[in-house]
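Notes on consecutive records. When two proteins share a document, each keeps its own sequence and its own token line. Never mix them. Below: protein one.
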Amino acid sequence: MKRILTIIIPALLAFTSCGYDDADLWNAVDDLDDRLKTLEQTVSRMNTEVSSLQTLVDAIDSGYFITDFTTLSSGKGYSITLSNEETIEIYHGTAGADAPVLGTTEIDGVYYWAYIVDGEAVPLEDGDGNYLPVTGTTPVLSIDDEGYWMVDYGNGAEYIDDGNGGYIMAKGGESMFDEVVDGYYYVTFYMADGTVFRLPKMSTAEFTIESRKREHFKYEATRTFNVVTKGVNDVVVVNTPLFWTVDIELNPSGDFATLNITAPSQVFVSGNLAQAEGTIVISVYGQDGNFNVRQTVYTDGMDYGLALLTFEDDDYNGSWESTDGRGYWTSLIDSPQYGGPLLYGDYSAVDYNWYDEGNTELASELVTAWGSTVFWNGGIAVSNYHLADIGKGDFDTQLSIVGETGCDGSSNFSVGFGYSDSYGAFPGSLPGIYFRDGGERVVESIYVTSTTYFANDVTNGSSFSPALPSGGYVHLIAIGYDASGNPVSGTVQPFELATGAGGPVLDWQEWDLSGLGKVNRIEFNMDGSADGYNSYGWARPAYFAFDNVAVRFYDDE
């Protein structure tokens, strides 16, 4: 059936001698050429739509919403901007006989690419017989020189079977999108293969829950969160963990709300065990009639309370009183970062320490070594410094991080410095935190990120150590001690602060320390691959930043 034209046309051209009227032949050739040009435009449009559909499905899976919906200047489709700042273009389609060869099919909640035969969606498969998800590799459509559809998933273009032993011929005018309807709360996408997608539209309403990424609840406890609102018409609780209670009270002024969350009891209820953790999802509808981004709070409940050391002045519960108008934690931030009076003084001895009194009960002070007590011996310093330019990170900016804020958008955090290695360098100089009241408790987790000084070293290298090569790594190690000063038996996985392949950690990442069990003190050390060592021992700047230290408290404490 195929490629007959490529054989017959050259044969007919041999008879173009004097007196032969070849007008009909050339008209046929021109018709074929015009058809192929039309099909090339169809292919270009459909490849754009394939990419748009892929973005659309990913937006649905990721919970994105539409921030802008406008008609193209040509009037032939729409330009749609999503909340992740991606923009897609969708064209008006034609249904019926010109339904496209490529479409989607949903199987167990996942959308897969499919080809359409007689209105039926047949899932496309890779060479191993696996279905190809829409959010995976982007297929590239093409046509051969006779107008038959081909598709390439990265392993070369292949013809698409028509289910009857042949291939599918492109007709022109195909479009994956049949109709797009701009509704009140949603934009609805009607596909030519019968599939329907919906994406919510963003409202100008604001609904900001003053909470952290993860909020801990003791069983049966109720916690109240402030919510900053603007232009909110209504809110709907879409999802809660099993047997958790959520109540939202909107202020009549429309500019404030309270969110009350109650954890369940740790018992069987109606034959079901209440969920210990989960996500609360709240939908917000604006006064302009549109749907706003869904707000979420991740919650977990346990049989213990959780105190959080954030290094923020508002969270300080101790007895210290300010004499200079600054809060407790902010008063501990030195200036300049290196050589400042709080951390270095006269370079022999300073009394720099902190105590989270009445909250986590954690404390820390600088290490004393070689007859001096200053930060270069080791310790933990409070900071709020930021330096995004990694190439400028050095000892003068030792208290800076690359990110713009502390964990969860806060102002303050802390920077630890110090190490001990097999070469005997800096013995007993490890930075540590401990419970000043003498108690032993579980430190559940901390959030960690790189300092700019450390990030510059592993990225660009220095005169002491090379840039971290492929296969290289730097780890933080946590060591626990009981109240008698003996190492505890519990251990935790080291925190991977940098790798040669991925570079330094630049965002705040949680480090689970609960595996240490109950401790009185935790010390932190830095270690890594051989490239981090020279003839003097560990040679990389042993700085790291941490924030949001979570400590467990039980009823008997």
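Protein two starts on the next line and is unrelated to protein one.
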Amino acid sequence: MIYFVGAGPGAQDLITVRGKKLLSCADVVIWAGSLVNPRLLLNCRENVAIFDSSKMTLSETTDVLLDSQKRGLNAVRLHTGDGSLYGAIGEQIEELKKHNVNFEICPGVSSLFGAAAALKKEFTVPNKTQSLIITRLSGRTSVPENESLEKLSKHGSSMAIFLSADKIEAVCEKLLQGGAFSKKTPCAVVFRATWEDEKIIWGTLETISKKTQEAGIKNHAIIFAGDFLGENAEKSRLYASDFSTSFRNAQEKENHAFSFDCAKILTFSERGHILAEKIAEKLTNCKNVQIKSCFGENRLEAKTQTRDAFFESGRRILIFVGAIGIAVRTIAPFVQSKMSDPAVLCVDEKARFCVPILSAHVGGANEICRLISDSFGSTAVITSATDVNGVPALDEWASQNDFAIQNPKEIKTLAKKLILGEKIGIFVQNPLLERDEVKNLLLDSHFFYEENPNKANLVLLDSKIQNQIFSQNAKNAPLVFVKKSVCVGLGAKRGISELAVETAINDALLMKNLRKESIFCFCSIDKKKDEKAFISVAKKYGVPFLTYSAKELEKVKGNFSESEFVNKTVGVGCVCERAAAKAANGGSEKIVLKKNAKNGVTISLSKI
């Protein structure tokens, strides 16, 4: 195979990981000796055939590449920066096509971006310019008349001018002729960006030419011009506190966005499949995204994939790209409860409308709907009463902030109160009052802090069981949210019963006086990812079952209850404690219950 590889702007470590790997496996290398850092050749293996293209013609380089393919060798054509920009790879590609030779292109880091990093500047600045023009002055290689510098500079966009440092005086004159720039427009020249002898010359269109000539720079440099080089740039709106995005509402904390364990996107046509691929790119807050074709030979897949989505554990998304009737008929046999159903949405194949169907708040379907709407200009067909009336959805808040809902029937009662304009009294068990999400909730004008738990409409409980703090009278029982912060690390012999696992869990929680609703996740080693009892229990509790490799567990720091037998069996000396600590994003200091073994189950608890 022949690979065109971008070597990067110059620094030895700015070649991509893929490019470095291809270079290390090559049998033949043709490199741009006048431009590419020779240290990159240190990545090549011994006995590789190396050719310097700076001393070769197109036909000579083509002959070397063709010969490598006849001999069944891997060849790398190593270009400076990224080959797509002034890389002269187009003519080489045409030669290979004439001979029906396969090739691949590995992108590189352009010197354009190496220079921007050196300048510590962003080409696109809010309310100044949102465009970058990359060009060059006409020379031995001509430039089309409609792309002359004086015409392009009329836009006032950020300018990056290659291969023209030896004619910088003419460059400045032509940029001024466009009328959008003045003599005071900031400029910079970056010589050999990211190399050890890198130089940066700062100036204006009035001064940059003289400074560059005095520095003796005539080649290997890029000329930049535009207001993006100036000071006092305005801030982007993206991270402004009053700017809403699909993952953050205005004046809300960034950690109020959902995260998902898995997503399935079912498609029913070729056009729908293309849209599904674009939607998948937007689901950056989802750990695992799968696109499943349910048309042609795979037309029966919809039912199977839907069933799996409904019966998996963790927070899940199921998106139908097609008619809503298909979605409704497919999910009908599996619908159970708003507390356990996945977030189900339907998007038509042209992305004109997006409709949340199930689990709008708890499952996050409304939030995903808003994401798709913002990304593709779709109409978000959101019909939830709280959303329509512009009041907070308490079940959505609970799910976003990892609170378990203990008595979900009360959600509707409190929603009605909010819609009618009534305020909701909230009692908060310490130490939850110190959490930002709770403070923000109490600052909302729809709520107030109620010191007496028996008068509260909503009670927020920590994971720790304390004496009864409110009445359990069925008529007046408040809505109760329990903070999920306990990670349960599990180990067991193969084929352990679900009863044995549940008994071990209950005993462990009792030992540490913790609520079962406070379980955030179950976790173990990846060798147990198909353990039926673990999967069933996670599904029953409605939380994800996470697994880690032996190498991942070995890296967790701290003192653990190690076993030589376990180490020989699975490759790490302790499973349950290490898994619990990793799930809590820490080391052994996160453990609140060390390994406890009973009836073939080992269990450990940690707290986030």
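For the record: Confidence is low (pLDDT under 50) at residues 251-256.
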